[in-house]
Amino acid sequence: MKFIVIGLGNYGASLAEKLTIQGNEVIGVDQRIEKITALKEKITHTISIDATDEIAFRKLPLKDTDVVIVAIGEDEGANIMVTALCREANVKRLISRAVNNLHEKVLYALGVTEIAHPEEESAERWSKKLCMTGLIDSFELNNRYSIVEVVVPEKYVGRTIQEIGFREKYELLILTILKNSEKNSVFGVDRIVTTVLHGIPKPDTKLQEGDILAIYGHNDHIKRFLK
Questions:
Q1: Burial letters 47-86, b for 16+ CB under 10 A, else e
Q2: Higher local confidence (pLDDT), 131 or 67
Q3: Between these two residues, 87 and 131, which has the higher pLDDT value?
Q4: Which region among 35-49, 79-93, 132-146 has the lowest average model confidence (pLDDT)?
Q5: The domain 2-129 belongs to what CATH superfamily?
Q6: Of residues 8, 54, 13, 59, the one with CA closest to residue 31
Q7: Of 12, 94, 130, 208, which has the fewest beta carbons less than 10 angstroms from its beta carbon?
Q8: Of 3.50.50.60, 3.30.830.10, 3.30.70.1450, 3.40.190.10, which CATH number belongs to 133-226?
C-alpha cells in the first residue's frame, strides 16, 4: 500500500518507519529539514514542504495514495488546515490526529471519521491496524499474543462459529461480537458507535454482515485468519 504521513514528530516518524518496515511505500512530509534529514534513510521517500500551503500541498501524489495520515500534533491549527485540504482533495482514506476533545470535535465537524489519539494508541498499534485486512483495532499482550477487533470476512457471513472452526482450524478464541452503528454528534455529523451484541458467543452463533469479532490468539494465527 501507499501512505503519506504529514508531520514527522515522534508519533508521525515512528508510524512512517513501522509502515515502511512492513513493506509499504511511505512518503513522509514535514517542513522541518532536520526531521527530513533524520528519516531519509528510514522511510521510502521524504518531502520537505509546508503542507498548509495549498499550492505545495496539491503537488503531493494524493490520487495515487491509499491512505493519508495527518500526524501533526504540535500545531492544532496546522493539523486542522491540512485535514481540511485533504477533505477538499477527496483523498481515498484520511486519518487525522487529535490532541484533545475540542480538537477531536472539530475534526468530526470536518467529516473525519478515523481519528488517532497517540497518547492512548501506539504507532505499533496503528501500523498493524493499517496493514492487516479487516483489522479495526489491536492490543498486544506480549510479542506473540494479541487481542484484536476484526470485521467478519465476507466468506464467513451466515456461518456459525463452530462451522468456521476458530479453535480447531485457527487456534483462536472469540471473546465477543460487536456492532457499529451511526450516531449524530453535537454538530449533526454522524459518528460511529460500537456496541456489544454478545458476551462470550456460543458455538452455534451465526455471524452476520458487519459483525466485529473480538479475537484472542497468537499473532501468526490471527494473520493467517485474515488472509
A1: bbbebbeeeebeebebeebebbbbbbbeebebbbbbbbbb
A2: 67
A3: 87
A4: 132-146
A5: NAD(P)-binding Rossmann-like Domain (3.40.50.720)
A6: 8
A7: 208
A8: 3.30.70.1450
